[in-house]
Amino acid sequence: MRVTVGLSGGVDSADAAGLLKEQGYEVIGVHFSFSKQGSGCCGNAGYERAKRVAANLKIPFYVVNLHLEFEKMVIDNFCAEYARGRTPNPCIRCNQFIKFDFLRERAKVVEANFIATGHYARIVRDATGRFHLYRGIDPRKDQSYFLYTLNQEQLATLLLPLGDLRKVYVRQKARDWGLPNAEQTESQEVCFIPDNDYVQFLRSRHPELFRSGPVYDTAGRRLGTHSGIVNFTIGQRKGLGLALGERRYVVKIVPEENAIYLGRENEVYHTRVWAEAVHLIEPVSEQRLRVWAKVRYQSDGGQALVEFLSKERVFVQFETPQWAPTPGQAIVFYDGDCVLGGGIIERSET
């Protein structure tokens, strides 16, 4: 059986390729280039590491240039969301519109049966032939949050060989195989932004977004002036540019007013969330559904009641307050370890 594996240059995707080869698959490595210069999703260094991994594993290696598609579907959206006073998640956007669809296209070209990535999540097929997405067994690495946009057609041909493994084992396998990225550190950066300086990235493309405006407290009193709403996100405490004598956090961004609102820590916690662009992996017939929901990747989440306002919009009432639900970020719903679906946060309230 033939499988195309997305090789980013990181240790996880490298291990996915190695494990599948070890299991008897005919593995083909594919690296996506997201720039005119040909550097990949993790820059030129990522491309070089992916190339060396493929050579080490003795598998074919192809580079696919997607810079036009990536610019249109991910970067343009990234900039537009910040202009709206929101904080986007480009990794989810890339998964939804770039990574899995183009891996499947490449699989068709090379007549592969499956595609695979190095995500820490699990896919289970039930007796009826339906596919379900589950958390990875390593709670510190579970990446199911980023995959809630997958559909049945994608799940049917997707292999996630790291879902049943812990990171420590994955790292050791890379050492055993002598992979060049075995000791590579984890990256928390947005892959297409140099030095993770998203402010400079936005300034170079859209300097008009950096307009000064008012900073208020939640009572409407003016506290000072900011240098552009794109410098801020909900829950931010550092870099506010004001000496207030006490801790204040960004609690609201209002692009129509070009204004930032600051509040105390307790004002960042919200229990009510509205979300749009909802996608469900699991079929839901009830208008209201009790779930476990997460408003950000690193949060524990909490019990919540989801009410469907329409096919693509929901209202979510949490039992306990959640830290900084942020417009533009994803809210993802679970039933135990099973991913039900998710959406993009529109707004939230206490």
TrEMBL record:
* Segments for region (Interaction with tRNA): 141-143, 296-297
Q: Which UniProt keywords are present, listed alphabetically?
A: ATP-binding, Cytoplasm, Disulfide bond, Nucleotide-binding, RNA-binding, Transferase, tRNA processing, tRNA-binding
Q: What EC number(s) has UniProt assigned to this enzyme?
A: 2.8.1.13
For this UniProt entry, the molecular function terms from Gene Ontology, in alphabetical order, are: ATP binding; tRNA binding; tRNA-uridine 2-sulfurtransferase activity
Q: Where does ATP bind?
A: G6, L7, S8, G9, G10, V11, D12, S13, F32, G118
Query: Which Pfam family is one of this chain's hits?
Result: tRNA_Me_trans_M
Q: What function does the entry list?
A: Catalyzes the 2-thiolation of uridine at the wobble position (U34) of tRNA, leading to the formation of s(2)U34.
PANTHER family listed in its UniProt record? MITOCHONDRIAL TRNA-SPECIFIC 2-THIOURIDYLASE 1 (PTHR11933:SF5), TRNA 5-METHYLAMINOMETHYL-2-THIOURIDYLATE -METHYLTRANSFERASE (PTHR11933)
Q: What protein name applies here?
A: tRNA-specific 2-thiouridylase MnmA
Can you name the source organism? candidate division WOR-3 bacterium
Give me the gene this protein comes from: mnmA
